[in-house]
Amino acid sequence: MKPEILVFASSPSAVVMEQLEREFVCHHVPKAGAAEKLAFIDSVAPRISAVWTVGAIGIDAATIARLPKLEIVVVGSVGYDKVDLEPLRARGIPVTNTPGVLTDDVADLTVLLLLSAARRLPAMDRFVRDGSWAAGKPLAPARNLRGKVAGIFGYGRIGQAIASRLQALGMELRYFQPRAIDGVTVRRAESLLALAQESDYLVLSAPATAATRNVVNAGVLEALGPQGTLVNIARGALVDEPALIAALNSGRLGAAALDVFADEPNVPAALRELDNVVLTPHIGSLTVETRHAMGQLTLDNLRAHFAGQPLLTEVK
């Protein structure tokens, strides 16, 4: 008999979904609609042995409690901050995610965002489109990156991949996270505040946890300064968004480039209206190749569990 799984978000990869549907009995929560969601879950709950979700959706304690036979939760993203780990661990239910396979694409987007902010790419695009160039309006020069300091908060796989790319552009590097990384040549700052003080560009690639919520506050933004730029490809929860908007509006912070936000997909109008901000809709891993790899790794973790084999990427 095929295991029955509760699917909160399908993989964009048709190949992955074909395999999933062939090997498991899938109950797709989005098809039930928001109003019928709980009734739908309750109707299949006694038979559910696995949950397939993503970081932006996760699974909460109330839903976990509805699933008496749950054996595993697989998360089709690297982030799992919306997965309620405590009740899962209390029941001995493992969680997996998809680290590694999205590292390069996220690092590439980070560089794109940083360059776009440095060279004011959205404003330059508008300058051509709205006729300002043809009208002979003045255009202020941007600044280059060579010799500038990029401070990276969170120096795991993604942080280090970002560092290698920025170093190739001639930037100097610093990093901070609570635990020092052995064997790296990049200097570690004493604190996040010190990192901001030393940096021209502050890049966020740390996980969202209780300890990192709103850690980029008014003081950190003030330390980054009027010539500084904040680049966030991690999670919106790391940034005190009202403080960021205030700093950008007042000129206490020079610019920001953001792929993630506090209440996605709801981006404050105050951010959308600013010329010194580059915005993208949480697309760090959004390539055909990487989304397939993420889906395949998620599926392979499911297969491993039901085959009694070690999980490939269990969250510890």
Please give the oligomerization state of what you see: single chain
Query: Care to count the β-strands?
Result: 12
| Helical/strand content category | alpha/beta
Provide a count of the helices. Answer: 12
Q: How are the strands ordered across the major sheet?
A: 8-7-6-9-10-11-12
Count of the separate structural domains: 2
Can you tell me the overall shape? elongated
Beta-strand residue fraction: 5-15%
- Point out poorly predicted stretches: none
Organism: Duganella guangzhouensis
GO molecular function: glyoxylate reductase (NADPH) activity; hydroxypyruvate reductase [NAD(P)H] activity; NAD binding
Protein name: 2-hydroxyacid dehydrogenase
Pfam family, one: 2-Hacid_dh_C
Task: Give your account of this protein's structure.
One of its GO terms (cellular component) is cytosol. InterPro entries: D-isomer_2-hydroxyacid_DH, D-isomer_2_OHA_DH_cat_dom, D-isomer_DH_NAD-bd, NAD(P)-bd_dom_sf. Belongs to the D-isomer specific 2-hydroxyacid dehydrogenase family. With 316 residues, the chain is α/β, with parallel strands linked by helices. The protein has two domains: 4-101 and 289-306, NAD(P)-binding Rossmann-like Domain (Rossmann fold); 103-279, NAD(P)-binding Rossmann-like Domain (Rossmann fold, 3-Layer(aba) Sandwich), CATH 3.40.50.720. 36% of the residues lie in helices and 15% in strands. The protein is built from twelve helices and twelve strands. Strands 8-7-6-9-10-11-12 form a seven-stranded parallel sheet, with helices on both faces. Strands 2-1-3-4-5 form a five-stranded parallel sheet, with helices on one face. Helix 3 links the parallel strand 3 and strand 4 (72-75). The protein starts with a strand and ends in a 10-residue tail after the last helix. The mean pLDDT is 97.
